[in-house]
Amino acid sequence: MTATLVLPAVLRPAAGGLREIPTEAATVGQALDLLAGQLPLLERRLRDERGRLRQHVRIYLDSDDIFDLAGMDTPVPPGAKLHIVPAVSGG
Amino acid sequence: MSDAVLLIGTRKGVVVARSGGARSSWQMNPLQLVMSSVYGVGIDQRGATPRLFAGATSEHWGPSLFHSDDLGASWQEPDQAPVAFPEATGASLARVWQIQPGPPNQPGVVYAGVEPHALFRSEDGGVTFDLVEGLYNHPHRPEWQPGNGGACLHTVVPHPTDPKRLLVALSAGGVYRTTDGGANWEAANSGIQSYWMPEDQRFPVFGQCVHKVSCHPSRPERLFAQNHFGVYRSENYGDSWTAVESGLPSTFGFPVLVHPHLPDTVYLFPLQADSERMPPGKHCRIYRSRDLGESWEPLANGLPQTNYHSAVLRDGLCTDGGEPAGIYFGTRNGEVYGSFDEGDSWQLLLDHLPDVLSVRAAVVA
Q1: Domain map of chain B by residue range?
Q2: Set of chain B residues whose Cβ sits within 8 Å of the Cβ of A56
Q3: What 3-state class would DSSP assign to B38?
Q4: Domain that holds residue A39
Q5: Which of A42, B218, B230, B269 sits a CA distance of 20 to 30 A from B252?
Q6: Hey, is the C-beta of B81 within 8 angstroms of any chain A C-beta?
Q7: What is the number of structural domains in chain A?
Q8: Is residue B235 packed enough to be buried (19+ CB in 10 Å), middle (13-18) or exposed (0-12)?
Q9: What is the rounded CA–CA span in Å between residue B101 and residue B122?
Q10: Under an 8 A CB cutoff, do B62 and A48 touch?
Q11: CATH homologous superfamily for the domain B3-364
């Protein structure tokens, strides 16, 4: 059973209009690595070219901030939702 | 008579405005690349149709470099990052500050100046870019410091006829030039002051906070520089610089522009500094020299002269190269003014824009 990346409205044009993108990734970092191959333009909205998550982007695994878990190494269980959230610190 | 286009980078996106040949009335298209700050814009007219560029940075989603082939109706970027630092550098792009098409004899060549200090070069018309390693690996780079706005390579001046010559300016690193196509670079700051340094160190080899450099294509050896305090002219492609400040109310400012048809005529927008950063006397005034900077006169006709607090940034002053030439400047108040008589009089063309960061203009068919 796959997990799902859930995009905010502002990023959906970079995903061809999709709100949700399925992923078979085992970790959050792997989900973004897979995204880089599928939708590179979308992926670079989330990470810089060194693979660092952009400063004002947060990712929630269901209701937990991944940085309260294991960061990019956070395991992604089947059926989980990975919510991409623009942080208020970014404006 | 041809139409004119204004390409305006703002704090909240990019705006394209169009006018008929008389340039008296402008129609503004809707804001695009919304909620991104557009520090650098460019117009490439070397092809059959103009290509517009915008260096846009979203606080959330990062920087990129966009292009438009339909005069700003739509904007594109390639799937792979158009500007990205190679892995070996360990660096990542913070912002695109300058997009400069190459000279007519190098079709397809476009330069991008970025933050952190670096130069990128495109050979496909500005769609994808590669790092100019020769400058990135310069031994001075570890000592380049950021200016208040960031560690930016903000000015690229291609030589109009010699493809091996190029000049760039950095804050705060100074002016650098290459004469071998970018493999090797040398600092070219002799005579430019860093006033904040101890007295015996005020004329260093590099490290100056040069804000902008301009030249006329018919006189590529003659350059004008607006520095963080100091206005300078070089007659030898940067071998040496001479202060040309007589008559200015302040030697601080950001932009400098040479008139496209009058190589001896230069424009500035001085600011009181270093703590205020507002026009001297709170008068909105362009300053013009008709004699290579030896003397300067204020231009105020049509510009607000009381309680004016706004500023013009380094890429906020431009020309459309038309006949007569349009000279334009955009302000941090969200205004764009234009003059079509060498600056003798000015008109408010657009207002209520977001904070204007960059302006370019062109006469198009």
Answers
A1: 3-364
A2: 59-60
A3: strand
A4: 3-90
A5: B218
A6: yes
A7: 1
A8: middle
A9: 9
A10: yes
A11: YVTN repeat-like/Quinoprotein amine dehydrogenase (2.130.10.10)
